[in-house]
Amino acid sequence: MFLRVSFLTAMVVALASPGRAAAQQPSTGWRFTIAPYLLFPHMDGTVGVGPFQTELDTDPGDIFSNLQFGAMLAAEAKNDQWAIGFDGLYMDLSKDGEQFSTKFGGYQASLELSGFRKLTPFFEVLVGGRVNLMGTTVTGPAGNDLLDKNLSWFDPFIGARFTIPNTGKWTIMLRGDVGGFGVGSQFAWQVRPTVAYSVSKHWAFGVAYWALGMDYSKGAIGDRDYFKYDVTTFGPEIGFAYTF
């Protein structure tokens, strides 16, 4: 039971923001970008709940076949020197058990806020934080909760973003950050190369390849309240953006 629950918990952590595809605008005041996105995630690592743990090796088919609801949105406000970025996601997964009419569920939510400072026309430093929320439930045949576990933690991070100067309608970016530092995760890292194409003054489409690693644990190994999440999530992304 706990192996199945930890698997569903792990599947939920799949998403973060896409490549922020945005049309290049004249540098006059603040510009705002809104960007829905979709990730096709693979996951590799270890998840533990209490005395049980399991190794993960999942692909997009495993995740989407159990997806009940998902919502992902990125946004950014920027001027010539500063930028503020936001990422929000929510995923709800559910799966019927193979025995005893049980039902397994899990959810993942993540809120990320970043601040950017431009040092050169193509290089920015960044600092921010990410709130991670995760939960699992196991419902018995009578509708009673056999397990209901919820966790949350905060990861600060620092990093940089490199943008190749605009050449016509194409924009190429690379973002990376490291964090956790024992505040939430023992260590967390993220990297995302992005290619965006502007189809008009306001609209753009982008593709990216995203990878996020988190090594988080709580409690002592073997305790009922022990939780471990040491997982790397990676895969291609697609999205579109509206800039005004």
Question: What does this protein structure show overall?
Answer:
The protein is mainly β and 244 residues long. It has one domain: Lipocalin. It is built from 2 helices and 12 strands, in the order H-E-E-E-H-E-E-E-E-E-E-E-E-E. It has helices at 2-11, 60-64, and strands at 31-39, 42-49, 52-58, 67-78, 82-96, 103-120, 123-139, 145-167, 170-179, 187-198, 203-218, 227-243. It has a 10-stranded antiparallel beta barrel with strand order 1-4-5-6-7-8-9-10-11-12. A hairpin with a 7-residue loop joins strand 9 (170-179) and strand 10. The chain is globular, with a radius of gyration of 19 Å. The N and C termini lie far apart (49 Å). Residues 1-26 have low confidence and may be disordered.
The end-to-end span amounts to: 49 Å
Give, in spatial order, the strands making up the sheet with the most strands. Answer: 1-4-5-6-7-8-9-10-11-12
Residue windows where pLDDT falls under 50 for at least 5 positions: 1-26
Which value, in Å, is the CA radius of gyration? 19 Å
Number of strands: 12
Q: Could you say what the CATH architecture is?
A: Beta Barrel
Instruction: Using the alpha-carbon principal axes, give the shape.
Output: globular
Look at the helices and sheets and give the structural class. mainly beta
Beta-strand percentage? over 45%
Instruction: Fill in the CATH topology.
Output: Lipocalin
Q: What is the number of helical segments per DSSP (H or I, 4+ residues)?
A: 2
